[in-house]
Design brief:
single chain; alpha+beta; ten-stranded antiparallel β-sheet; globular
Length: about 625
């Protein structure tokens, strides 16, 4: 194969130059409800577009395109434009809601080199009622590989803006003003609030082959940073996505990312079952009142399994070191037993108690002993899922290996959770719903530190735009957990907020980090967790602000759950129950912070009250500083 090498003394072709006599001055695309409008414009610099929402110009995009090593000349012409509309209702195996409307209008611009008639590529736009997206498709260059060098696109907002952004296992960035700073790299998702209080969530959908993009902030302008890559055509990039809403919660409620991914590729999905899970990792060294000390051994895991079976908990996650030190090349994940722990005995006991086992797998062991071989062995033992940790490589390598892990897990009917700075969720759980969650956040007590209440709130508005997240919420021993071997700092928060987080967080696995005995000490509060379903039927952010508080409602059959969280400030909230079906009465069990509760010095104070309510009612709830509130609404 002949490979074209980009040379710095040559000017690379920019895939955005439209010197075609046949290209109209303007073309526009609207959303089905006509609130969103994209107007494509031919300029001296190529193709640009304006994004308008309800008649107001919000964003101007200059010089749309990629810089490549293509042999295309600057005379690029428009071959044709395909216009189409699409509407369907689909039913997720795993997701925020039991059904999703996928409705959009689409333009596909087909372009090619005017002189040679080769080097063709497409730019595809889709416009939804909750935002818009575009992607590039670079067609096969024959024997030549295609090299993408960068993306030239510039996003220019009409006014100054405020923004927030994902920040790995740290407190999220923001709020930052567009004129406050110049950042060379801002990770996605990024949330922008315009001068007119409109919110845009900038992310990507279908990150399946190439490294995720980042953003560069330059005053009112943003630009995409994409990693260089070389590949044989056709090259299909991820979707650059813009979710739009009047409130920050609208961005989280959206299913735009999932709609931009392909339908489910798994024919039989009956084995994909979200649920609640016990977790051994943070409990190591805990000493129960009866004198028992939790260790990494079969006896300890049987104790977890007994508790799970008795309390409507579907799984046990057995974390790192069960097959040896996780980063050691000598640790064999296909070995059945070591140091008093017998995986086959544990699996048999779990099967007898109808509890599924999720096994940790480090990237080192997966690659040394062969991913296919390891996963087959897990299934032969009876495992139902995998937690995959510490993937190594460039971002492009991590993206491709993530896809490989998901597909091989699907082959063996294994669910999977990615940890330790994973590839961003991008709606791909629609295509492979065995991808149940990822630690795309600062999970509580992870990274050897704890997060503060404001991060719990902001993560729900920023990180959760991307997809289902594994936060490992649900701590009950907030006063003494840091004395354990695997908990490194005190945990700020209130015990009621820990329950509320399980309602607020969208995830396929609710991984509970505490000891069974700690849950039983507060059994009346734990009963709210016990009553939670293995998967909720709906998700909606009712109210909130990125830096202040959030209220989320979830349906579970005929019952409902409501969760609220606040930052370090205490607050009183009014929760309108008009989301409930008309004509029904509910028994509301309200789990509140105690009057003297505080996220630093009185974490475990709570109270519980009951009352009958109807859809016309408005509940007054109080949240302590750094606290939360949970409500269980049982249909009468």
């Amino acid at each position: 194969m002949k490979k074209i090498i980009f040379c710095s003394v040559l000017v690379p072709c920019i895939l955005c130059l439209f010197y075609s006599f046949g290209f109209p001055t303007e073309q526009y695309l609207t959303s089905p409800d006509e609130n969103h409008r994209i107007t494509m414009i031919k300029t001296e610099n190529g193709i640009s577009f304006d994004y308008t929402f309800r008649g107001r110009v919000v964003l101007h995009v200059d010089s749309l395109g990629l810089v490549t090593n293509s042999m295309l000349t600057n005379d690029v012409s428009l071959k044709s434009v395909d216009k189409s509309s699409f509407e369907e209702t689909w039913y997720p195996v795993i997701g925020k809601n039991t059904e999703v409307l996928n409705q959009y209008n689409e333009y596909t611009f087909h372009l090619q080199d005017s002189e040679t008639g080769t080097g063709s590529y497409d730019i595809i736009f889709r416009c939804y009622n909750d935002g818009f997206a575009y992607r590039y498709v670079l067609h096969d260059g024959g024997e030549n590989e295609i090299q993408i060098l960068c993306e030239r696109t510039k996003l220019r907002f009409s006014d100054d803006f405020t923004f927030w952004a994902y920040n790995r296992e740290n407190a999220n960035l923001g709020p930052l003003h567009s004129n406050d700073t110049s950042l060379t790299e801002v990770k996605i998702p990024m949330v922008v609030k315009t001068k007119h209080d409109l919110y845009l969530g900038i992310h990507e959908a279908a990150i399946l082959r190439y490294a995720p993009a980042t953003l560069k902030s330059e005053g009112k302008n943003l630009s995409f940073n994409v990693s260089e890559t070389t590949d044989h055509g056709p090259i299909t990039t991820s979707w650059r996505t813009f979710i739009v809403g009047d409130q920050p919660g609208d961005l989280v409620n959206s299913n735009l990312l999932q709609n931009l991914n392909e339908p489910c590729k798994i024919e039989d999905t009956s084995w994909i079952k979200p649920g609640k899970s016990m977790w051994d990792w943070r409990v190591w060294g805990y000493k129960a009142a009866d004198g028992y000390e939790y260790l990494l051994d079969t006896k300890t895991h049987k104790r977890f399994i007994d508790f799970a079976a008795d309390n409507n908990i579907q799984y046990l996650l057995i974390d790192a070191d069960w097959y040896g030190p996780e980063f050691s090349a000598d640790s064999d994940p296909t070995a059945a037993s070591r140091r008093g722990f017998d995986i086959e005995e544990c699996m048999a006991y779990a099967k007898d108690h109808d509890v599924g086992i999720i096994l940790y797998l480090n990237d080192v062991g997966a690659k040394k002993f062969g991913l296919d071989r390891v996963l087959k062995q897990f299934v032969d033992w009876g495992a139902v899922g995998v937690k995959y940790g510490f993937m190594k490589g460039t971002w492009e390598e991590k993206v491709r290996h993530t896809t490989e892990v998901i597909e091989i897990c699907a082959k063996y009917k294994l669910m999977v959770d990615f940890h330790d700075n994973p590839v961003p969720p991008s709606g791909d759980e629609r295509t492979y719903p065995n991808l149940v969650t990822r630690e795309f956040c600062h999970a509580q007590a992870d990274a050897k530190r704890s997060y503060f209440p404001e991060t719990a709130v902001s993560s729900a508005f920023i990180n959760m735009i991307a997809g289902p997240l594994d936060y490992t919420n649900g701590w009950f021993d907030l006063n003494h957990a840091h004395s354990r071997e695997r908990v490194f700092e005190e945990i700020p928060g209130t015990v009621t907020a820990e329950v509320a987080k399980l309602i607020v967080a969208n995830t396929g696995w609710m991984v509970l980090p505490d000891a069974p005995e700690e849950y039983l000490k507060k059994d009346d509060l734990f009963d709210c967790i016990r009553k939670m379903p293995s998967q909720f039927d709906s998700f909606k952010v009712l109210q909130g602000g990125i830096d202040s508080y959030i209220t989320v409602t979830r349906r579970a059959g005929e019952d409902w759950f409501v969760g609220s969280l606040t930052n370090r400030e205490g607050r009183n909230l009014k929760i309108n129950l008009d989301f409930l079906p008309e004509g029904k009465t509910y028994k509301a069990t309200i789990y509140s912070d105690g009057m003297d509760a505080h996220f630093l010095n009185n974490k475990e104070s709570y109270k519980i009250e009951e009352m009958e309510v109807e859809p016309k009612d408005i509940l007054d709830v109080r949240l302590a500083p750094g606290g939360g509130n949970a409500i269980y609404l049982r249909s009468l």
